[in-house]
Target: Elongation factor G
Amino acid sequence: MSRDLKFTRNIGIAAHIDAGKTTTTERILFYSGVNHKLGETHEGSATTDWMAQEQERGITITSAAVTVGWKYRDNQYHINIIDTPGHVDFTVEVNRSLRVLDGLVFLFSAVDGVEPQSETNWRLANNYNVPRIGFVNKMDRSGADFLKVVGQVREMLGSHAVPLQLPIGSEDTFKGVVDLINNRGIVWNTEDKGMTFTEVPIPDELLEETAVWREKLLEAVADYDETLMEKFFDDPDSITEREILDALRAATLDAKIVPMVCGSSFKNKGVQTMLDYVMELLPSPLDVEAIEGTNPKTEEVVVRKPDVKEPFAALAFKIATDPFVGRLCFIRVYSGNLEAGSYVYNTRSDNKERISRIFQMHANKQNAIPNVGAGDIAAVVGFKDIKTGDTLCDEKNPIVLESMDFPDPVIGLA
Ligand code: GDP
Model:
């Protein structure tokens, strides 16, 4: 089984503590759980399932990587969410997550804006040039100010933050957004906990502001695309949604633009829309550069492409204990394919390890899978001696992926 990597996303959610990372992850798991259920049964069971799964999901949320499915524009996506520690004491761990993920959702509180840990994590992400989108959460709280946070991302983090939305309503009445790309209003439906939305006219009082911010958005993306720039000056109305999204994606992948959206995960608003933008704008494993390592025997540089036909190479990024399956090692596979029951070579210990089983952590179950291929993330069990940072690979084609000298977060200001 090999997956079309175009539809895979390896993402992290970075946030200052208390900005709502747990709540947002919980909503993502809920939606993906319901998505699966919707295929099998009828929609009515969503709420009871949610209650019943709450406890098991509590375990999943703290997992180093959790896998969810997401349907976007008729394609089924496979998303691995890699835990990105929020606390400043875990800089090495943040570095390691940044290494194995391909894109970030950067969460801010709409009230507190850019906070110290957002700054540290932002600079670490800059060191790796990680493409990111911003999600301004807690829009229902008093004092919430989306555009103020966008301004802080520009000024305090020195990044080209560009709003894709304007909030409709505020605090208690926050219910939707103006979608600046499509020039329409959307209001999230409450009966399915914000999993879907209804299109509405742009409220009169927001028409002027919408025109201003849409123009800023078009100008920002046109900067990265010459044909768009011509259209922008000749006839901006002729620019299509697809053209905007494609140019925006290119600029986001280059980490030149940080698209910003908003919501309230606690009130089930906006998480769905944010996830759609993850599919649309953040990289697949095919969009990132091939990984480099060294051959431990010859010291030569080795480059591996995200292709199942290449020799196997994976980085162990977290060792954990799971109440159901015991000691687990989370790996990011960069090239090749690993079958359950086969042997891998550990370049640090110079030993072979048998991997008895391979798992992916889902909202409500640990899923045993027969194999894991390039571009994907999974947890393996059965090993004796694997440490975080170890490279697991094909014995005949050895490679060391990680050198332990991570970039210093203090240098390299945005
Ligand atoms: P984390 O530390 O980033 O994981 O944050 P949590 O998800 O645990 O949220 C911290 C607190 O903020 C909790 O009390 C949440 O209920 C609350 N919270 C999270 N998201 C929202 C939101 O969108 N609106 C409001 N009003 N509260 C929220």
Summary: The longest strand covers residues 313-322. The two ends are 41 Å apart (CA to CA).
